[in-house]
Amino acid sequence: MKAQKGQVRVITGNGTAAYAAMLCRPDVVTSYPITPMSEVAEQLSAFHANGILDAEMVEVEGENSAMNVVAAASLTGGRVFTATSSWGLAFMYDAVQQASGFRAPVVMAIANRETPGILAVSGGQQDIVSARDTGWIQIIVEDCQEIFDTIIMAFRLAEDYDIQLPVMVNYDGFYLSYLAQAVEIATQQDIDRFLAPLKRQPQRPKLVPGEPLSCGTHGIEIGFVELRYKHCIAMERATTKLDEIDKKFGEFFGRSYGGQIEEYRTGDAEIIVIASGGAAGTAKTVVDTKRNEGIKVGLIKLRLFRPFPRKRLIEALRGKKAIGVIDRSVCFGWNRGPTYVELRALSPEFGVVPMLSYIDGLANLDITTSHIERVIDETHAAARGKPYQEVTWIPLEE
Amino acid sequence: MAQQEKKKSRIFDYFTEKEEQFAGGVAWCPGCMLELTARFVPKVLGKDIVLVGCPGCSAPVFYGQNLGSWHRLTYYSCLMTGVASSATGISRYFRRIGKDVTIVCFTGDGCAADVGFQPLSGAAERNEHIIYICYDNEGYMNTGYQRSSTTPLGASTSTTPAGISSKGKPTPAKNMPLIMAVHGAAYVATATLSHLEDFAKKLLKAKEKKNEGFVYIHVFSPCNMGWRIESNSSVQVCRMAVRTNYFPLWEAENGKFRLTHETTNPRPIQEFTRQIRKFAHLKEDDINKLQQVVNQKYAFIKALCDIGN
User: Which of B64, B85, B97 has its CB closest to that of A65?
Assistant: First the structure.
């Protein structure tokens, strides 16, 4: 069965996130405005005010409460949605870890933004990097259509009986959050149909008045260890589950994104560039240009950041001659990009080859086509045995 | 007309007829007022309530840390920063599915007045349909008797210890129930264990008023260990707190204040402080300052009550 053709609207990333969330029929929605995602909160409130969004809308007094409201509503049995960015994510840090530890299938959109200093009102992925060990599933998307589709897939993933974990759907703040693109809005009926399999699964455990059941009391001693272990195993399951959901989404809606990673011209590639978010879109055009120049380069768009798509990456990178990794954030204590550091841990399995870390696009600075050309040229040279610099802060070298 | 029987306090019924929700031998200290409050609340509100709590003195029993002695209430545990907000989420979901449930937040003053104050204030302002019960033991008793913003003037705690250059806590307590009342909550009341009938009435009122909006009940709850009082004297300390006007019993229904128990000839504050060793270092002059604080606080609530009359 195929989905009907949806209406195409020119809509911002924030507007898209709100639209997708609304069409997934959440029971409880909350969100505290913060630049650059405030429009998500406004749009959801507008949908609610106009009777389009039939949900409990909670206008909380801060992000910490936003996360507590949705986590508790989720464990009471509801479908929930919230959104935030940067400091907002930092301010809900305790509740974020609690939501995942309690296995609350919250879906949260994040317009990625830098953190330190009040003047860091600018794009960057440092916010989610700082939250990578909170036990959430983290997906990074490239454009507005992917925001829409991924939020729908995120509900299917989070609430799956085998997963029951919260999911962050990340898009570049300032770039995608404010950028209007043509987005095909799937019909309500088709989204209902896509999410329907969740209804046929066993019910999640939930809070029932009068039943002697404690929610969120995470075990002690060996009980605690067991819950931690199960959490880790559920995250492992989320990797292939995302691939399955993405495949089913593709079969039904006609759009798919490769699941954990998207591989672009990687098959016969000698060298690989790795990027995520909007930068991956730019990288695709540069890969095409370089292919025309005769350089056998391919791109891996990292979609799943947590759990880290180890298996898929090893398969895709095995036998490649050099790898250039672009990060829009830093890994403190390593002076490398976080994706780069994580990939290095896998290198014994895909082959010890030159790996180059590029830090670019911090503080709203553009990751331009010429930056990516440089990444490809240097990685290409490294593959041919030329000496190379392991880490490059592109904006500082321009 | 049937012969009128002698009116017996309903309080006895609560203890004889209602099912006990807590096992015996739970891990609270002997003489703990929080324990009596925790046992009493479900007797009045019913066993179908959903409790929401956080780390604190109530936690070891509520969480079931001692697996041998627990309770059988429905319980949601979260962090101190998330009690009123988690209760909001639970309440909103039940509203969404059309289920009438009494949600009861149950925390100490450390959560209510300090680290969990922001979400509490937010929930009160949004007029969420929840009951928030704060057992005020005037400090962080579970972590070793440190001061909180409801610790009274002059009290010696482990972070405001009395010493050569310290007379205990240098500032008076935050008037938490009054702060909650001026949020415009549907119902706010103070209560304590020495006046159980008054407490029970307020709980029943709370259950009714939570259908209109936010309810906050502030329970004066002495801590035998932290305040250094005898384990058999906690109820006496509660009674003396009321008799000295240190802890006046009042309620505010939709912004209308009323004293529910007026003290005739209030006793001097020494009669309260001398039972409690956290005040032992205070000199006459210091006691007089505390008396002034008590007088001012009482005059203020009295004036608010007079507005309505």
Answer: B85
Position B10 scores a pLDDT of 76
Per residue in B11-69, pLDDT (tens digit) is 888 888 788 999 988 989 999 999 999 999 999 999 999 999 999 999 889 988 777 78
For residues B98 and B96, what is the distance between their CA atoms, to the nearest angstrom? 5
- Residue A158 phi/psi, 5° resolution? -60, -45
Chain B touched by A203 (CB under 8 Å): no
Residues with Cβ < 8 Å from A58, sequence gap 6 or more?
A28, A29, A30, A66, A69, B88, B89, B92, B126
From the list B47, B64, B97, the residue facing A214 with the nearest CB is B64
φ/ψ region of B50 (left if φ > 0, alpha if ψ in -120 to 50, else beta) reads beta
**What number is the average pLDDT over the span A119-143?**
94
Q: Tell me the CATH number for domain A261-397.
A: 3.40.50.920
- If interface means Cβ-Cβ distance under 8 Å, which residues of chain B face chain A? 47-50, 52, 62-65, 71-79, 81-82, 84-90, 92-97, 99, 101-102, 118-119, 121-122, 125-126
- How do the domains of chain A map onto residue ranges? 7-253, 261-397
- Going by the DSSP 8-state scheme, the letter that residue B218 receives in this structure is E
| Centroid of chain to Cα A266 | 22
CB A66 within 8 A of CB A94: no
Q: How distant is the Cα of B70 from the closest Cα of chain A, in angstroms?
A: 10
Q: Kindly report the nearest CA distance between residue A130 and chain B, in angstroms.
A: 20
At A15, is the secondary structure helix, strand, or coil? helix
Q: What is the pLDDT of residues A202-211, one digit of tens each?
A: 999 999 999 8
Topology of A7-253 in CATH?
Rossmann fold (3.40.50)
**Min distance A162 CA to chain B CA atoms (Å):** 23
Domain assignment of residue B237, yes or no: yes
Nearest to B93 among A27, A95, A212 (CB): A27
Structure tokens at A80: 């929930």
Q: Among B51, B81, B100, B210, which would you mutate to test the A interface (most chain A Cβ atoms within 10 Å of its Cβ)?
A: B81
Sheet holding A107-112, edge to edge: A56-58, A28-30, A80-84, A107-112, A167-172, A137-140, A304-306
For residue A211, the one-letter residue type is E
Task: Inform me whether the C-beta atom of residue A26 falls under 8 Å from chain B C-beta atoms.
Answer: no
User: What is the domain count for chain B?
Assistant: 1
Whether ipTM exceeds 0.90: yes
d(Cα B24, Cα B22) in Å, to the nearest integer? 7
* The pLDDT of residue B170: 98
Interchain proximity A68–B78, CB inside 8 Å: yes
H helices present in chain A, as ranges: 13-23, 38-49, 63-75, 86-91, 93-101, 126-129, 144-158, 188-195, 222-253, 278-292, 310-317, 338-350, 369-383, 394-397
CATH number of residue B257's parent domain: 3.40.50.970
Residues of chain A above pLDDT 70, percent: 99
Mean pLDDT of A315-343: 97
Tally of CA atoms within 13 A in the half-sphere of B70 that contains its CB: 15
Which member of B50, B85, B125 has the closest CB to residue A68? B85
Q: How far is the CA of A267 from the CAs of A145, A299, A319, A385, in angstroms?
A: 26, 10, 11, 22
Its domain, for residue B215, covers 22-308
Rounded to whole angstroms, the Cα distance separating A229 from B108 reads: 33
